[in-house]
């Protein structure tokens, strides 16, 4: 089997940040020392060999995982701490940062190394951001994907150019979710649902690719209509806001009027119930009183008639607001046509009738 030692050396340099001498360089160095003819050349060669073996000592930082390869093939994973592997080119180690939260940007590119999106400090990438919605409108979507390395072996060996692969998968997942969403939801209240569904779909895609990453979040940064139609969308949004305002005002008016009307209706009903109860109970009382009087009348008709007459006269005579005239039968026949019946004042005279009642 022929191994490309230079490529292995370059890969180790790219992942560890240090350059380890290859076989050709080691052989060249040994030959130089052999050709020097200096005394103690053997000890120099032995020292070089010792240093070569010691070059296999490496330290894995707390946020890293060591991935050891032998002639380019994965053989072991090491945890944080000091470790040893056979010197290059036999074995090498790569130390990806598995706790670091990484991110890819879709639809825009930030300037500098800032990890937060700031409006005005990025450039748009319309070929990534312009997407078709479920109601056949175009919307400009810019978002980021945050992820961590879940399986360092898969991340390093299953897929090349991991960030680009994840970026393409994220764009495809977002296009699928946006393609099932109406533009109104995408621009207003549907953003959280879009983020959640896109993250789940993207995770399933990268798992099928064996990319070895865990998608932590999909965050929409800017969602707006294309610049060519943004004014029309603003008009629509303004009309929608007016509609909501009118609805809210109508709801407020209804909530103010209906309780008052219900209160007034309750008052009227309560008054009607009270009036009904008063009339019914009063009528029942009068009926009971009448029946009581009737029972007494049937027992002693003359006495009852006399008592009723006296009670009636007592009520009339005791009322100071009533004008009273007492006449005998004969006098009443002569004076009745001349009595004042219009409610005016009339002198009161006491005249004894035939029975001697005043």
Automatic annotation (TrEMBL):
Residues annotated as domain Band: 55-237
Keyword Transmembrane helix: yes
Quaternary structure and partners: HflC and HflK may interact to form a multimeric complex.
Example of a GO cellular component annotation carried by this entry: membrane
UniProt topology in membrane: Single-pass membrane protein
One example GO MF annotation: peptidase activity
Protein name, UniProt field: Protein HflK
UniProt cross-references to Gene3D superfamilies, sorted A to Z: Band 7 domain
Bilayer-spanning residue ranges: 40-60
Lineage: Bacteria, Pseudomonadati, Thermodesulfobacteriota, Desulfovibrionia, Desulfovibrionales
Keywords for this protein: Hydrolase, Membrane, Protease, Transmembrane, Transmembrane helix
Family according to the record: Belongs to the band 7/mec-2 family. HflK subfamily.
Cell compartments where the protein resides: Membrane
Main subcellular location of this protein, as a coarse class: membrane
GO BP annotations, alphabetical order: proteolysis
Record function comment: HflC and HflK could encode or regulate a protease.
Compositionally skewed regions (Basic and acidic residues) per UniProt: 1-13
InterPro entries per the UniProt record, alphabetical: Band7/mec-2_domain, Band_7, Band_7/SPFH_dom_sf, HflK
Chain positions covered by the region annotation Disordered: 1-23
Superkingdom: Bacteria
């Amino acid at each position: 089997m022929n191994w490309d030692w230079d490529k292995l050396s370059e890969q180790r340099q790219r992942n560890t940040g240090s350059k380890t001498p290859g076989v050709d360089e080691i052989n060249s160095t040994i030959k130089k020392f052999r050709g020097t003819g200096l005394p103690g050349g053997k000890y120099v060669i032995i020292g070089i060999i010792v240093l070569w073996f010691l070059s296999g000592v490496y330290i894995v930082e707390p946020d890293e995982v060591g991935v050891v390869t032998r002639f380019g093939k994965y053989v072991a994973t090491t945890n944080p701490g000091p470790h040893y592997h056979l010197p290059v080119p036999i074995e090498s180690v790569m130390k990806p940062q598995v706790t670091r939260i990484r991110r890819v940007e879709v639809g825009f590119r930030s300037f500098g190394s800032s990890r937060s999106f700031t409006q005005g400090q990025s450039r748009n990438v319309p070929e990534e951001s312009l997407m078709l919605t479920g109601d056949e409108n175009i919307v400009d979507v810019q978002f980021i994907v945050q992820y961590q390395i879940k399986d360092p072996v898969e991340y390093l060996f299953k897929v090349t150019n991991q960030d680009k692969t994840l970026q393409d998968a994220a764009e495809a997942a977002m296009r699928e979710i946006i393609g099932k969403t109406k533009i109104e939801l995408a621009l207003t209240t549907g953003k959280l649902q879009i983020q959640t569904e896109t993250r789940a779909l993207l995770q399933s895609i990268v798992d099928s690719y064996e990319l070895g990453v865990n998608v932590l979040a999909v965050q929409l940064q800017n969602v707006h209509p294309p610049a060519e139609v943004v004014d029309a969308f603003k008009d629509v949004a303004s009309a929608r806001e007016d509609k909501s305002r009118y609805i809210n005002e109508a709801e407020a008016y209804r909530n103010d009027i209906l309780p008052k009307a219900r209160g007034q209706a309750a008052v009227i009903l309560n008054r009607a119930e009270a009036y009904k109860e008063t009339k019914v109970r009063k009528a029942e009382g009068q009926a009971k009183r009448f029946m009581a009087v009737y029972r007494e009348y049937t027992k002693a008709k003359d006495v009852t008639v006399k008592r009723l007459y006296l009670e009636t006269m007592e009520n009339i005579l005791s009322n100071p607001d009533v004008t009273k005239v007492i006449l005998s039968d004969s006098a009443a026949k002569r004076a009745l046509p001349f009595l004042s019946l219009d409610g005016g004042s009339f002198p009161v005279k006491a005249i004894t009738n035939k029975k001697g009642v005043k």
